Amino acid sequence: MSFGTVLLMLIGLLGSLGIFMFGMKSLSDGLEKTAGSKLKGLLQKLTGNRFLSVLCGIAITILVQSSTATTVMVVGFVNADLLTLTQAIGVIMGANIGTTVTPLLLSLEGLDFGMLFAFAGLILSWLPDKKSLRRAKEFSPIVMGVGLLFVGMKGMSAATAPLQEWDGFSVAIQSISNPVLGVLTGIVLCIALNSSAACVGLLQALAGQGLIPLSTAIFVLFGTNIGTCLTSLIAGSGTNTTARRTSIMHLLFNTIGTIIFVIIASLIPFADIILSIAPGNLKLQIAMVHIIFNLTTTLILLPGAGLLEKLACLLVRDKGGESAEMRLRFFDTRFLKTPPVAVTQLYRETVRMGEMAVENYGNSLALFNEWDDETAAGILQTEDVLDFLKHEIEARLTDVKGLDLGESDAKLVGALFQAVNDMERVGDHAVNMLEAAQTKKNEEVKFTEKVSAELTDMGNRVTAQLEAAMTLFTAQSGDRQAVADVEAGEETIDNMTEALRAHHVDRLKNKKCSAKNGMLYLDMLTNLERIADHAENIATVFTE
């Protein structure tokens, strides 16, 4: 084979592979943007047990056409404490099954599906940007991506055709007929292309030209299942212990499955069985191997998922002390490549910030009644964390805002911007209350039972407002009745504040209260009333 022929073949192969991978990315990104927020909801709702988790993983991977994308999403949700390790393992198993749809689709023969889908995608992209047609137009990159998959596959098949005449390639294929070398080849190939779907597509193209026998291709295919774990391992590094265990479980699942099938294929005529199931269609034969591998591995390992979980826990030890650090506990910048996950992680960070602000308020309120040095130090330490979180969350929200977000995620980002500011202000007012409590202690200020009861009543009302607001925020709820109750409570607090101030003026006129006591009393009223205002703002962020 001449140098020119080899060069043209490489250009054609790499170009076609590029088209294939671009089509995969276009398909995956388009589906993620169109249904990203719905996929998040699906993950959280359908993971009640392992069987539902598997179905959820299948459904999501069929939609996004990437088991890696699903696994990365799962790792991100586990890192944000929105999924447990038990829920995650079922989704990962389902993701492996869902990823078999692409090779099955590419095994179709007859019509020129590539041109058909590409043309359909082009027509969709030309639709007017009207509200009624916007939804259909969003499917343009999805349909176009499917078309590019077929175009890329056809190009790879055409580019590799000259290899039929090259004896050197036959020798190379024979050298990886050994099961171990075949698996290693699959691992290296998948790591190099960073896409198991591209690897399977390349195998189908080579098989379609008769360049690689099924008996060799199956071992390479098994290896790609291990190679595809690299991305989830990278995604898991730097995350919390549970998220790292999730990545390890993905590797364990595919490695154990590969070992099982290498043994099966070495002991029985596995390739011959596949040939009898799908005679004459080499692409379909490879797709069938892919389906049988993932389906069988899931059926074998799902009942023993608990043991797999324990093994992951054994391999990744809990370091402890993770929650005490001043850092973004749930967010990881690497998930900016998966916007729905990044938004969810920032939402979880904001919930964490809100919970800390409410806790600081409660501690400050208790401190005003009974001073404690340790509690006071804790409030100031938490306030530093709140300031840090506000700065970091807003910076990351700005990063996320510049990404290609779906409508619901864009609204959530806007709500988080508003909530973060109000939560930080709640923390500031809690510190003001701490300072008032310290003055009360240092200057030995005493209040009458009536005044103490007034402040206690007001404090209890504000506590109820904050708790109701955080309940709505955590649920991302705009429930009209619940919001109306918070708004009514805030109005009551405003009226009470005005009335209590008027009563206080009367006490001062009648010399029933000293100026020092009066200043502390008004300071507490002001802080409590303003915290109630911020609680109302937090409660209403999802109603706008």
Structure description:
The protein is mainly alpha-helical and 544 residues long. Helix content is 80%, strand content 0%. The protein contains 23 helices and no strands. Helix 1 (3-45) runs parallel beside helix 18 (339-369), helix 4 crosses helix 14 and helix 11 packs antiparallel against helix 12. It is elongated, with a radius of gyration of 30 Å. The N and C termini lie far apart (68 Å). 48% of the residues are buried. The mean pLDDT is 82.
Summarize this structure briefly:
By secondary structure, the chain is an all-alpha fold.
List the helices and strands and how they pair.
Layout: H1 3-45, H2 50-64, H3 67-79, H4 85-98, H5 101-106, H6 113-125, H7 131-137, H8 140-160, H9 167-175, H10 179-193, H11 196-208, H12 214-227, H13 229-236, H14 241-267, H15 270-277, H16 282-301, H17 305-315, H18 339-369, H19 373-401, H20 407-442, H21 449-474, H22 480-509, H23 515-539
Helix pairs in contact: 1-2, 1-8, 1-11, 1-18, 2-4, 3-4, 3-13, 3-14, 3-18, 4-14, 4-16, 6-8, 8-11, 10-12, 11-12, 11-16, 12-14, 12-16, 13-14, 14-16, 14-17, 18-19, 18-20, 18-21, 19-20, 20-23, 21-22, 21-23, 22-23
Through-space gap between termini: 68 Å
Helical segment tally? 23
Into which percent range does the helicity of residues fall? over 70%
List how many beta strands DSSP finds: 0
- Mean pLDDT across the residues is 82
Shape: elongated
Summing up helix and strand content along with how strands pair, one would put the structural category as mainly alpha
Global Rg: 30 Å
- What percent strand? under 5%
Order of helices and strands: HHHHHHHHHHHHHHHHHHHHHHH
Largest sheet features: none
Regions with little confidence, pLDDT below 50 for 5+ residues = none
